[in-house]
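Hi R.,

Here's the chain you asked about this morning:
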Amino acid sequence: MLTAAKNQFRVILLSLKYNIMREMTNRASFLTNVLFMVLNNATFLIQWQLLFHLKPEIGGYAFHEVMVLWGLAASTYGFSHILFQRAFQLPPLILQGKLDSFLVQPKNILLSVITSATNSSAIGDLIYGYLIIVIFRFSIPNLLLFTLFTILGGLIMAAFAVITGSFSFWLVRGDLLSDNLNNVIVNFGTYPDSIFKSGVRLLLYTIVPVGFVVYQPLHIILNFNLTALLGVIAFTLGICLLAFFLFYKGLKRYTSSNLMSARI
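And the predicted structure, written out as C-alpha cells:
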C-alpha cells in the first residue's frame, strides 16, 4: 500500500511538471500571468491599509493579522489551483461526458482528472502568500505552520470542489451550484470571521469549510494550539475521504459521450 501511495505521489508530481511545462510554452505570457497576479493581490494591501488608517481595528483584527489572513487565502487558493485545477472544472467534464480518456488509464481516476491541468496565474497567488507571511509575521515556526496550512487548506479547497462538482452526476445544472459554493470560500475567506454573525460563522465552519481553510489556521499561527491543529488535520482527512466516496459513488451514474480523445 505504501508503494502504491508513493507511485501515485510520483504521478502527481509528474503531472504537475508537465502541466507547468505546457503553460511555459509561451514564457512571456506565463511570467506575465504570475507577475500580474502578485500585483493584483498587492492592490488589496493598499485598500486595507487605507481602511485601518480610518479605524485601528476591524472585528478585533489588527492590520498585520488581516494581512496574514489574506496571505493564507492567497496561498491555499494558489496551491489548490496549481496542483488540482481540474477539481474546479469537474462539472463540465461530467455533464459533457468527457471523463472517458481518464477511465481507461491504469491510475487513480479522480487524481488523474483533478491533476490534469494547472492554473499558471495561481503561482502568483502562492508567491504572494509567502511574501505576506515573510513581511508581516516571519519566524521559522510561523513559516512552517504557514506551509502546512497552505497544503491542508489547498487540499480542503480541492476536496470541497470535488464534492460540489460530483453533484453533477445527479443534478443537470450542478455546475451552477458548484461554482457558487466554491466562490463562497474565496469571497468569505478574505474577511475577518468576527465580522459575521454566529449563524453565518457556523455555516462557514460546516457547510462551506472556510473556517478550516483560513480562519482556524490564522488563529493557530497567532496563538498556537495543538488541539486546534489536530482538528484541522482531522477535518482535512475527513473531507478528502468524503470527496473520494462521492466521486466514485457518482461515477457509477456517469454516461459517456462516446468521443474519442486522448491525453498527452
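The CA atoms of residues 81 and 119 lie 6 Å apart.

Let me know if you need anything else.
M.
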